[in-house]
Design goal:
about 190 residues, mainly alpha, two-stranded antiparallel ribbon, 7 helices, about 55% helix, globular
C-alpha cells in the first residue's frame, strides 16, 4: 500500500503512560503496515488506527479534567469546567463529546460520522458481532479490504495531526512523550 512513515510530535498527552503506550502502538501500527502483504494485516491495522485515535482523543478530555490550571488550548474555560466532571471513557461517548465541544470541526463535516464508522469497524475485534453498518458484508475478509485500511490509516494520521496542531500542551511541558511513528498516505 502507498504509505510513507513520519514521526509526529504529538504533545497532547497528559497521562504520560498513555503517551508511552501510544508510542509503542504507533510503532506496532507502522510495522503492521510495512508487513501488510496482500492485505493479511488489514484487520489489525484498522484496530490499531482506531485505538490510537481513541487514546489521543481521550487525552484532550483527560487534560480538561485534570489540568485545570494549564487548561487546554482551543477549549473554553466554561467547556473545560463542564468536561471536568464527566465520565468520558467509551469510544462512542468520546466521539459524541468531540462533536459537542467542536474539537475536530476544522476537519470537515463528516469527521464525526467517520469516527463512529471507524468505531463500529473497530468493534469487530469481537468476531461474533456484526459491524452494524448498512451494506457491509458479514464476511470479515470482505469487510477489512485494502481500501478500508487506507481509509483508516489516513483518518488516523489526519486526526492525530489535527489534535497535535490544535491542542498541544504548553511548550515547557512538551517532550515527555516520544514522537509517534505513523504511516501516512503517500
Amino acid at each position: 500500500m502507498p504509505f510513507d512513515f513520519y514521526e509526529l510530535e504529538c504533545n497532547i498527552f497528559g497521562d504520560f503512560k498513555a503517551g508511552d503506550n501510544a508510542g509503542y502502538n504507533s510503532e506496532l501500527l507502522s510495522n503492521l503496515v510495512e508487513a501488510n502483504e496482500n492485505g493479511k494485516f488489514n484487520k489489525p491495522i484498522l484496530l490499531q488506527a482506531a485505538s490510537l485515535i481513541e487514546v489521543a482523543a481521550i487525552q484532550i478530555f483527560y487534560r480538561a479534567q485534570n489540568y485545570n490550571l494549564e487548561g487546554v488550548p482551543n477549549v473554553s474555560e466554561a467547556d473545560r469546567q463542564e468536561i471536568e466532571d464527566k465520565q468520558i471513557d467509551k469510544f462512542a461517548v468520546v466521539i459524541d463529546n468531540l462533536r459537542k465541544y467542536h474539537i475536530l470541526d476544522g476537519m470537515g463535516v463528516d469527521i464525526y460520522d467517520d469516527l463512529h464508522k471507524l468505531r463500529k469497524y473497530r468493534n469487530k475485534i469481537h468476531i461474533q458481532l456484526d459491524v452494524n453498518i448498512p451494506n457491509v458484508h458479514r464476511d470479515e475478509d470482505r469487510v477489512f479490504t485494502n481500501a478500508k485500511t487506507r481509509w483508516a490509516v489516513d483518518l488516523n494520521w489526519r486526526v492525530l495531526s489535527h489534535l497535535a496542531e490544535h491542542y498541544p500542551r504548553p511548550n515547557q511541558i512538551q517532550g515527555f512523550v516520544q514522537p509517534l511513528r505513523l504511516p501516512k498516505l503517500a
